[in-house]
Known about the structure:
By secondary structure, this protein is α+β, with helices and mostly antiparallel strands. The chain has helices spanning 13-24, 45-61, 74-80, 99-107, 110-117; strands spanning 28-30, 33-35, 42-43, 85-94, 123-130, 139-148. Helix 1 (13-24) packs parallel to helix 4 and helix 2 crosses helix 3.
Amino acid sequence: MATAVGASTSIDAASALDQLNAARAVERTCGTSQMPAVPPLRWSAALEQAATGHSEWMQANDIFDHIGDGGSDVGMRATAAGYAWKMVGENIAAGHPDVPSVVRAWLESPGHCMNIMHPDFVDVALAMKPGTSSNTYRTWWTLDFGRPR
Length: 149
């Protein structure tokens, strides 16, 4: 099921999901925390909408932050996209050229790694918005995680 993630991005959802699930399939150390292998995630269209919107907002405003349009946070964006959640989380990144490099960077960052390896997350979506010549970064990434109610 190879689909492009978001109308404004050029990443492959199936490949991104495979890379995230491959990372979750093995025990790893996130900072000083030993994390066991955890079950695979499934792609969420609602989280994709939230992630895409946030990457687009960061790029359009040249702002790298978890706080987005109108002061929104990941929970507000997930709810607005129709995701009924019990738990949500978010990783953001900027400047990485492709999915393998951004996933690798998140796995090397303790907090981001712990989000990827969190056993309670079951849904995920990744979005990337290319930057322009007037942006600080060449790419804007948002990875949203969730556990539905």
